[in-house]
Amino acid sequence: MKASTDELKRIAKEIGCGVVASTTAAGSGHPSGSLSLKELLAVLLFRVMKHKPSDPTWDGRDRLVLSKGHAAPALYSALSVAGYIKRDELYRLRRADGRLQGHPDWDPGIMVEATTGALGNGFSIAVGMAIALKADGGGQRIFAILGDGEVQEGIVWEAAMLAAHRRLDNLIAIVDRNGLQLDGPVEEIVSVEPLSRKWEAFGWHVVEADGTSVESLLKAFRDVLRVKGRPKVIIAHTIKGNSSGIMRWNAQYHGKVLTRDQCIEYLRENGCDGWECR
Amino acid sequence: MGMQVVKEATRESYGKALVEAGKDKRVFVVDADLSTSTKTELFASAYPERFINVGVAEQNLFGVAAGLAYTGKIAFASTFAVFAPKAWDVLRIIAHDRLSVRVAVSHGGLSNGPDGWSHQSVEDVALFRALPNFRVVVPADSVETRAVVMRALEEPGPFYIRLSKYEVPQVLNPGYEFVPGKGAVIRDGSDVAVLATGVMVHRALEAAEAMKDISVAVVDMASVKPLDRGLVLALAERAGALVVAEEGSVIGGLGGAVAELLAGERPTPVEFVGINDRFGKSGRPDELYEIYGLTPRAVEDAVRRAVKRK
Fold it and tell me: Nearest Cβ partner of B60 from A105, A114, A159?
């Protein structure tokens, strides 16, 4: 899919609409850490990645692993906009009568490539996928999305070390540097800085981007996809809860959703036509 | 002047079987800097392009194995039994998604004697039994180890295969085929049946041969999970008393599985030979087996206790 820059912005907005509508309907979830991903997912699914909504298990597809699994609402919403998931299903998020789990469950039929949620594991799994796909020689790439709090997990660095050692240039990580983790600002809980230099020291090619800007993300992907012989990481500087006045940079909203009234307000402010608050 | 008995540790049998299994190009082997101990080095030499050493990083060991399995490979991931639970978080995903990862661990039980308790595993079988979807297998000898590895090529989903550093004689016939959920009666007997796994199978056989006054059946229950329910119930009915013998904690392992089944279906006296809720320590394996009560003599004592309870 090759959406224009303007279309990508509209798609990012739609992803945000789905995040808020689905989490408010569920009554729980992680909307703010999902909203910080909406531009990234738009750019990945509608410009960068090779995939076929008509054939979710197409062998030639690039793989997307949402290692920060709590942002599942963003993934589901993006997959819905891309045509993998019916919008109705988003309203059954986290419900016993729906299939969309609170954190992603492996589901090849809707292109959820791995089970994630317990942090760090998805990235290690992505490294295993990169090894397998490189061995097969089909040219597929693996995109793994991590949270900035998530990189406090030890397994992330075990996996980063191996990826560089094996020169997995088919692996692209994106760190959603939204600055907040569950208990507060990442830099106050346990600092992850200097983040770029950490990845560089582990042998990765690092590019920083404004993760709220599709233009900046597109440029970052153009840069990293040219690099051979090393795994690549984009540090995407974002804002947790972006596009919501209430949730924006508010750690209290890590695991808290908007009320129905607040949801209505969000949909109105963001021009979410066709979405509703249940 | 007796016949020379060829002994082999199941880790060695595993390494050899992997080379045979490697003809299947789906097979990848992952190790965490223990390949000379787990014997995956044999596969590494034969198929270097499908061998991944992740270094000293057990979480990543199983994460990478999961990634391989999501991509259609059959991943054998090896370390010491005691280190696998370090990656529990990832192992739960492997279990949940029924990934074709074979957690094939060496140095089970006390077989890593002198290294001490930090390198010995007593609780691992109980832990893996509690993970939904995992098949938990403790092979008794070289024939069974090979059979398990070969079977694991045909059966999707996760396996826990617990191997040992301790050299054991062959107890199964060369044509033996392993089937998950099936036990193998190795010696017939009518008074008591001993259900055993791993190194305890040949010790149970030794004990059974030595007891002239009691007719003892010996069953290899390599498949701890799924348990051969039909066989356990039939043996309970026929013998009226059972002994479980395993080189691991008496809590939650094969003994736990048998007790859970019998409590629900056919209450029967059971005696347990195993490690009595404590850790190992340094020592030669044979010394430790004496200290921890994992000997033919311990099996015999348990058989006699079981008979009295009938």
Answer: A159
